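The instructor's notes for this session suggest beginning with a concrete chain rather than abstract definitions. Hand out the sequence below and ask the class to guess, before any prediction is shown, which regions might be ordered.
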Amino acid sequence: MRVIVAGAGVAGLAAARGLLNAGHDVEVYEKAPEQRTAGGSVTLWPGSTAILDELGVGHADVGWRLETMESWADDGRRLFTIDLTAAERRYGCPCVHVARRELVEALCEGVPVVYGAGVEHAEPERAEARLSDGRVVRGDLLVGADGRRSAVRRALWGDDPATLSGWVTWQGFTTAPTSLTGARRAVMIAGRRELCGLIPAGEGRLLWWFDVQASPGGPFWGDDPDIVPRLRERFGGWADPVPTVLETMKEIDFFPHHRHTIPRVWGRGPTTLAGDAAHTMPPTMAQGANQALEDAWLLTRSAGGDLRAYERARARIARRPAMIAGTEVTNRQRSFAGLLPDRMATWVHTESLRRFSSYLLTAL
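After discussion, reveal the predicted structure:
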């Protein structure tokens, strides 16, 4: 079967890799002029690391293994700790944190990608796409994995259904030595109306992010010329290593949080969606890349069969983390975090990983 994939992000590359491994003829078209490696890093839960193994990208070869996830108050008091090794023991694969660049490079190996030729328009019933260079390509299956601004989704759904949640993320890496850089723990530091996250990403890097409430044109929005001093003022009195992060800020990326209701059916005819094109959600549950890999895994098994069954199955699962992420509950955890015993927090997290994963629900 000939498959056309729009987009060379995590969803598109993982789907292409899985379909190639299954013996299909796959072509990937990406609007960027070269491999998309921008962005920080992502946390991959056990279902996703197992999927990477199946795709031929061994989880031992990418990322930094994590053992705990902690919640702190802004003065450094520990509120609760989740034991991530509990999920590792139960599901057989670890939780890892990996730079997006390294994940994309690993998924891209051996996958035919045409850069500088994004999909501008699609004809879903014919699995046909018109590219930005004027060419028209057609396959037996068209997969729109071209992100929140997906041209394939626009042909299927019309206007972008996503709306702003009222929260934004500013993030980057620091290579300055900190108490967390070489650790195996992720830390979320909760304020009253803001959050700082810190996760080691290997090779001496620490991912940091600051989540705050913001609206277009206002303070903390992407065009704020005073964002660095504003972040330093807002978070400057917080516990170590936040002051080090604030002092060493260099490259800083902005991500507004979007959310939308995930429909039961995504596609039409021989055309379907994967990744953010199908289920945009805020990053607060660390599920974007994970749900993209879950899409790729199930789509590989559904190609040539009932695509609407693939969509219904994935929508049923993806709605769960999307709904929770849409409430921005992680950013509001200060109000309840201290009430959770470690054992209960670990159990809830371990159980939720299975409920958020088509792979784990099927394989275990």
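Then share the key points. The chain has one domain: 2-162+259-363. The domain at 2-162+259-363 is CATH 3.50.50.60 (FAD/NAD(P)-binding domain).
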